[in-house]
Amino acid sequence: MPTDVKVPALGESITEATLGQWLKAPGDAIAADEPIASLETDKVAVEVNAPVAGTLAEQLVREGDTVEVGAIIARVTEGAATSAASAPAKEAADAATNPPGPAETPLPKEDEHAPTEEHADLTLSPAVRRAVLEHHVDPSKIHGTGKDGRITKDDVLAAAQAREGGAPATAPVHEPEARPQPQKVEPARAAAPAAAPASAPAFAGERTEERVKMSRLRQTIATRLKEAQNTAALLTTFNDVDMSAVMEARSKYKDLFEKKHGIRLGFMGFFVKACALAARDIPAVNASIEGDEIVYRDYFDVSIAVSAPKGLVVPVVRNAHAMSFADIEKQIAEYGKKAKEGTLTIDEMTGGTFTISNGGVFGSLLSTPIINPPQSAVLGMHRIEERPVAKDGQVVIRPMMYLALSYDHRLVDGREAVTFLVRVKEAIEDPTRLLIDL
Asked: What confidence score (pLDDT) does residue 171 get?
């Protein structure tokens, strides 16, 4: 009797997800706890693992469908992997014993490169499958460059372009030369070059479009950002900070720091500690509005914006006010690795009280970040750039960074926002303040 594969629990308050991609096709042999599908939630991608070893018997939902927690999405036939794997071997043995004669040559399929039974062992996304059909390429001969060796759309286009660039090594085995139905021959595959203008290479100025459904994560990002604009009274204040002292400290102690703690000393540790110190003096930036009440917190859980393959995510460094520089850097490095691998959990991305976003790693000079509801403030860091500044009556060159604090004016007054940013500036320009708690 087949075993049901159900949607697992996805985290607190999350009741449904979108089936982003099937990782296994019906008939594939699977091991226990092996991923067979990928679900997209509002925050992360979650893999669904096989409950038992066997063969994937059937898929009950399609890619892009919305499924609820506990819903059955597939069935696995337990212990059928061996028999399923032996079937092709038996067919091959029969074919070797009784080779087909000339009259038994099979008729060609409508599309010899279509990813149907011939390529059932390949898992193709809808966009890739469409590209395979449009360009008439054989997916089994394409080297995938995606995750786990999966074929991407760019791989298909590159294979099609390579084929058009020169004559194929061998003629197609099933080319329908003598079939008496010329009206079914596609123009792009006609033998005469003069009669096949559609198969000519695309012109340099060709304009194309592609429609791709928004992922659940991107839809959630769009909804939450628009919600922030519609609900909060957003305002941004700016300042600049001289990074000389922090850069000097990093240069002086980076080798000893890495040798002792096994992690590099970065800028983010300084800014997290500086914001935690400033939030103690200006508690409104670490508070939130719930109904007609203001919730003030004596802890500082900072959300660090991290770029992931499917969009921006904000894992939370909890109790940052009580953490050391090394602990902060290790936590951020671990979250960065998980974001790239797509293994961040729901719990790791919920509950932040303040956000820091570093657009400087992408080259941003200045921006106005948007708060992450229900938080009331977000600090935007930017690139470090040498600029002329006035110091003690002289013009000198200093490594400067613009800082931006966006805040909810319903809760944070302008004076408080400016004071908070000045406190951060003072701590960065004189890191000793972080040590003596000033």
From this structure: 38
